[in-house]
Design a protein that fits this description.
It contains 7 helices and 7 strands. By secondary structure, it is of the alpha/beta class. The protein has a single domain, classed as Rossmann fold. The chain has a 7-stranded mixed β-sheet, sandwiched between helices.
Length: 217
């Protein structure tokens, strides 16, 4: 187990360096503790299709951390991760931004039970877990960032989550290949503010982050 931990730590540290993401010793420990729990619970709860814990470092942790350089801000944020599943990207981002508030939303009770467990185990006081369908969830306070890497389409995300977004808020959609065709139905309703191609270490295939904002009149 020690050798495995050392190996996982090396993959994480080297990958974070390539992403220009700085990790403290505490953040490394929290990220790896989260990954160990995800791997353990995955065998019973099917939280991820990825079965190799080494592969999980890149496909889950580094994939989530790849958006960190595009989240840097001088003020605290209220963020919701919609369809978070096993807590991606919400848990890694909550570890990276301890002063921000994160809501992890998922309709699957098994997945939210895992998230409650992880929140308590890691002492993530900035995380709130909600077991609801997105259309039924009505927060007391709206969010500056609505992020997801699970939505089928940009239109589904921007339509289905519009009631969660603060007036000054943005949607952050984590996608694979650049979704040119998904942007067409949004014309006149939602503006694409920025698009970034993410270079996730040790992974094949394209990754993109799109930042979108509803048109206001």
């Amino acid at each position: 187990m020690n050798d495995l931990h050392t190996s996982l730590k090396k993959i994480l540290q080297q990958g974070a360096e390539q992403l220009a993401v700085q990790l403290s010793s505490r953040q490394i420990d929290q990220l790896l503790d989260y990954l160990q729990e995800l791997n353990k619970w995955n065998q019973a709860y099917n939280l991820s299709a990825i079965r190799s814990i080494e592969e999980m470092v890149s496909r889950h942790l580094l994939d989530s951390l790849a958006v960190v350089p595009h989240l840097i801000s001088d003020k605290n944020k209220n963020v919701i991760d919609v369809g978070t599943g096993g807590g991606l990207p919400g848990i890694p981002l909550a570890i990276m931004f301890p002063d921000w508030r994160f809501t992890l939303l998922d309709s699957n009770g098994k997945k939210t039970r895992f998230l409650f467990h992880v929140k308590n185990l890691l002492g993530l006081d900035n995380v709130k877990v909600e077991n609801h369908r997105v259309e039924q969830y009505r927060p007391q306070e709206k969010y500056q960032i609505v992020i997801s890497r699970a939505f089928a389409s940009l239109q589904d995300m921007t339509d289905g989550c519009s009631h969660l977004l603060a007036d000054d808020g943005v949607f952050m959609a984590m996608k694979g290949i650049y979704p040119e065709s998904e942007l067409l139905p949004l014309a006149g309703k939602v503006n694409l503010q920025s698009s970034y191609q993410l270079q996730v270490p040790n992974t094949d295939g394209e990754r993109h982050l799109l930042i979108l904002k509803p048109v206001t009149y």
